[in-house]
Write a structure and sequence with these properties.
Helix content: 25-40%
Radius of gyration: 21 Å
Structural class: alpha/beta
Order of helices and strands: HEEEEHEHEHEEEEEEEHEEHHH
Bound molecules: zinc ion
Length: about 325
């Protein structure tokens, strides 16, 4: 019996299993070139996308990154961005505070401008609670972050800056998916990175417990559509890009389902009764594991009744 060979074989099996387990847990990165200087990075395992989309904009002189992935992936996130774009990373834009978008800030903050809305800085500087972020009914506690995990530049309503020959525009939409959402307009490329303001082909998760609002989200989308052209493409916070028409359809679904649920509630039905009735079937195709129809109905109810939460200032 060749012990060395058996041990070697065993080692190989363990290595392969380890590799498979790693890929199952953390996935592999899919790189999609969207348009000229813009690349989309997604991490996927065999089941699903892991974390959020990362958008990379590359000019000859500098690289701009939108969103930073989950914290445990932060160092590999940065190195992956650096293999896509050789120019130095000068700005990282964080679309909102949720950990799948803001978790990797510390990989960039020591040598890069990390830009977010001021409410993102306020939220990440203090303990936060997440409700339903990963599955219906889930609850998470997030500790206040130390300085390296925080944005080092904030936006109040709008910010524009040149990158190479183009201008990048950041626009804040109050009380939408959260209370600190930024959309990023790359007008020369006819691309808008919207973070979680847009969810492709599904009911959105709206963080009504943390300053989000469905009617506010509708206003945000009306504004984004008004500021866009039919040729534009939209990169959401998760999943595949959308066309202008798909964003229009999505907004229509939001306002029609909200109108329908609110009408039922106004007729005197309880939210439980509306859930039991269920949405009219033409909208049920928008249901997803994160936001099934009953969760969407509850969210519409909560969005209207939830007291607006004041953001805790530092
Ligand atoms: Zn989010």
């Amino acid at each position: 019996v060749n012990i060395k060979r058996i041990l070697g074989g065993l080692g190989l099996v363990i290595l392969l299993l380890g590799g498979a387990a790693y890929h199952f847990l953390f996935g592999y990165v899919v790189v999609e070139h969207i348009e000229g200087p813009i690349t989309l990075l997604q991490r996927q395992n065999i089941l699903d996308q892991i974390g959020a989309n990362i958008v990379v904009f590359e000019s000859l002189e500098e690289t701009i990154v939108v969103d930073t992935q989950l914290a445990p992936l932060s160092s590999s996130t940065r190195s992956r961005v650096e293999t896509v774009s050789k120019a130095p990373i000068t700005k990282v834009i964080v679309t909102h505070w949720h950990p799948d978008h803001s978790g990797g800030i510390s990989a960039f903050s020591s040598d890069t401008d990390v830009i977010a809305h001021q409410n993102v800085l306020h939220r990440l500087s203090s303990p936060q609670q997440g409700f339903g972020l990963t599955r219906p009914g889930s609850q998470h506690e997030f500790a206040a972050r130390s300085a390296s995990g925080l944005p080092n530049k904030t936006v109040e309503t709008q910010l524009q800056f040149p990158v190479g020959k183009t201008i990048v525009e950041l626009v804040h939409f109050p009380k939408a998916h959260t209370d600190g959402d930024l959309a990023v307009f790359f007008r020369d490329s006819e691309i808008v990175a919207t973070g979680d303001l847009i969810w492709p082909k599904s009911f959105p998760f709206v963080d009504v417990h943390n300053g989000g609002s469905i009617s506010g989200l509708e206003s945000a989308l009306r504004e984004i559509i008004a500021q866009s052209k039919p040729a534009y493409r939209f990169i959401p916070g998760h999943g595949a890009t959308l066309t202008f028409d798909e964003v229009v359809d999505y907004l229509e679904m939001l306002s029609q389902t909200r109108f329908w649920v609110e009408s039922q509630l106004d007729e005197g039905k309880s939210v439980e009764q509306v859930k039991e009735m269920g949405l009219p079937v033409k909208w049920t195709q928008w249901a997803s594991p994160l936001v099934p129809s009953v969760v969407w109905i509850q969210m519409i109810h909560d969005s209207r009744t939830m007291p607006t939460q004041a953001v805790v200032s530092k």
